[in-house]
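Here is the promised in-class demo. Please do not try to memorize the tokens; focus on the logic of going from shape to residues.
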């Protein structure tokens, strides 16, 4: 069963996602990030610039089906059309809906900002994950 973790009250979702991905990369985790295309484009840009002396190997594309064979070992994939088919076991959701086929992953991380729209969407996703039998953890992000 997929474990789900909600990270609530995140002041800057993109910066938080960068730090989360850096931590995952350093620990050897393989992560897919999904969300709207514009969000992923901005995250892609930030991953190149958020730390001057660091680089998090990543690839961005509309679907992982377009991932070139030579890049299958890339630890972080940014894609609206996600899949765990290359051994990525963590899914970070920046989108508004529960990602389709999230059960392919051992773990899903939901990054939730402070605005009401984001929090309301998270409540709906929480209910759906719960109804589908997922174990859910709640993390409050310190300011």
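The designed amino acids, position by position:
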């Amino acid at each position: 069963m997929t474990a789900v973790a909600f990270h609530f009250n995140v002041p800057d979702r993109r910066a938080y996602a960068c730090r989360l991905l850096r931590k995952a990369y350093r620990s050897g985790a393989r992560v897919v990030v999904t969300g709207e295309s514009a969000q992923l484009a901005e995250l892609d840009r930030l991953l190149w610039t958020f730390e001057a002396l660091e680089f998090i190997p990543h690839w961005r594309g509309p679907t992982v089906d377009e991932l070139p064979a030579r890049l299958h070992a890339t630890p972080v994939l940014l894609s609206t059309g996600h899949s765990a088919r290359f051994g990525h076991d963590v899914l970070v959701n920046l989108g508004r809906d529960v990602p389709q086929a999230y059960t392919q992953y051992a773990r899903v991380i939901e990054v939730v900002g402070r605005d009401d729209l984001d929090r309301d969407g998270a409540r709906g996703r929480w209910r759906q994950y719960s109804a589908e039998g997922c174990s859910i953890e709640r993390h409050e992000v310190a300011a």
